[in-house]
Amino acid sequence: MNWVLVSVIGLVAGVVAGVFGVGGAIVIVPGLVLLMGLPQHTANGTSLAALLLPVGLLGTLEYYKRGQVNLAYAAVLAAGLFFGALAGAKLAGMLADATLRKAFAVFLILVAARLLLR
Fold it and tell me: pTM for this one?
């Protein structure tokens, strides 16, 4: 059952990523914590590992075919993600699991509020 649930989390994350252009972590991390019972740090690390290769490849090709990808911006963003993920992982390692989980929840709430109020 766990593998089926993890597969569903991945599929939903992929659909959300394709529709909204997000990396999928907004689905993967809560799914792994709330549905699979993983600690926050393990969910974060697992999400990053899962996103290494597949995130965006086919979806990006589809957007690219329609002329909806700015490659220069994507390259600069990728560089920021490359180094930022390292800095973020080091920072997360200094936080307690409960603190990290609460910070992630606050982040999601702030993003949602900003989108709703804009």
Answer: 0.75
